[in-house]
Amino acid sequence: MHPVSASIGVKNVAAPSVLETQHGSVRPLAAGDLERVAALFLTKFRRRRHLLDRAIAETAEYMRKIYLGPAGQTGDSNALVQINPQGRLGGFLGVLKAHYEFNGAALNAAIIGPLMADPGTDHGSAGPQLLRAVHQGAFDLHLTDSANRVSLAFARPMKYQLLPVHCLGWTCIFRPAAMAAAMARGKWPGLPRFALDPCARAFDTLTRKRFEPPAQHSASHRVHREAMDAAQFAERLPTLMSDYSLRPRWLDGELPRLLALAAEKRADGPLHFGGTYDETGKILGCYAFYGQAGGIASLLQIQASGSHWGATLDGLIADARNMGCVGIAGQTQGRFLPQLFGYKNVFLRYAGGTMVRSRIAEVTEAVRSGDIFIGGLMGDRWTRLSSDDFGR
């Protein structure tokens, strides 16, 4: 890695509070925008044709919490709205502020979430206009781990770097028929359990050997796993990130608050924490996942030190199995993808674009080489906006 240049120490000039163009204006999200933004979100991302007042109210209140009320936030929201020349909402860009460090230098980061435009008021200008506005703000780093293909088309010409491995999701199947039944109930919540579960149990009994637990990467009695709580996870996760040059810098109380918000997510069950340790009690890795018996577990975060990714994955998958989950899904990372190849019944798929943009050459090089901690808590998949069905 080259020495950090003086450019990192240059203070960025904040973007104007309102940016005017011939296509309208972009300004920070305000409380008065929330209901309109919530309605647009439900229409675009939840495909709601008939919007219920309670769904709009619940979505708006959640957006107020994460975009207008973060601890330590002063001044305007980092999230942005585009207002067309007629004064109507044209689009919205969800932005969460985060802190990174690069070889010890502090960086301000913008985590970009939902990007959406109202087709009734927008003529293709809202998305690019919102992205250009956030690029003019006081951020050294812009990143997202959940871009859809439309957002990819907007962002790639703006010099975002795509991280292909992080764009993949992985799924490990424990009980195939029960997993298919869980997916069907997720898509059609009204399906009665008695119509699916007996058939699923019979099929899974027949295929039990094919889907038996995978061989452990580390069968040594000197490596063991233990459950932990959110406070312990918040204390131990930062200690496992020292080998990344570009990594989060969570301020006092910031990570516990983030985990408390992540625990509000409902779609995949409660949030659980675990870790792997050596015989002396030294932490080797830790993980956080959502899960409940009969459901598909969803990985929030996993991190390990050195060569201990395999043992940490073993612990994660064993905990999800023992809980009664029918499978587990998560986002890939370059550092544990090779270990995933050692498991049977693991499938990879495109799950959302992970992209990073920075004007700092050394930061760009670190991203290009994969020397960045990104995804999970340093993304927006932990929010309820990524999965929950509001107002139901």
Give a written overview of the molecule.
- By secondary structure, the protein is of the alpha+beta class.
- The protein contains eleven helices and 16 strands.
- The strands form two sheets. Strands 1, 2, 3, 4, 5, 6, 7, 10 and 16 form a nine-stranded mixed sheet that branches. Strands 9-11-12-13-14-8-15 form a seven-stranded mixed sheet.
- Mean pLDDT is 87; it is low at 1-7 and 9-15.
Number of helices: 11
Quote the distance from N terminus to C terminus. Answer: 50 Å
Q: Residue share in helices? A: 25-40%
- How large is the share of residues in beta strands? 25-35%
- Main β sheet profile: 9 strands, mixed
Q: Can you summarize this structure?
A:
The chain has 392 residues and is of the alpha+beta class. It has helices spanning 34-45, 53-68, 126-135, 149-155, 176-187, 197-206, 230-236, 254-262, 309-322, 337-340, 361-368; strands at residues 19-21, 24-28, 80-83, 89-102, 105-117, 141-147, 161-162, 168-173, 224-228, 246-248, 271-277, 283-290, 296-304, 327-331, 346-350, 353-357. A hairpin with a 5-residue loop joins β3 (80-83) and β4 (89-102).
Summary keywords:
392 residues, alpha+beta, Aminopeptidase, 7-stranded mixed β-sheet, 11 helices, 16 strands, 28% helix, disordered N terminus
Summarize the SSE layout with pairings.
Elements: E1 19-21, E2 24-28, H1 34-45, H2 53-68, E3 80-83, E4 89-102, E5 105-117, H3 126-135, E6 141-147, H4 149-155, E7 161-162, E8 168-173, H5 176-187, H6 197-206, E9 224-228, H7 230-236, E10 246-248, H8 254-262, E11 271-277, E12 283-290, E13 296-304, H9 309-322, E14 327-331, H10 337-340, E15 346-350, E16 353-357, H11 361-368
Parallel strand pairs: 5-6, 13-14
Antiparallel strand pairs: 1-2, 2-3, 3-4, 4-5, 4-10, 6-16, 7-16, 8-14, 8-15, 9-11, 11-12, 12-13
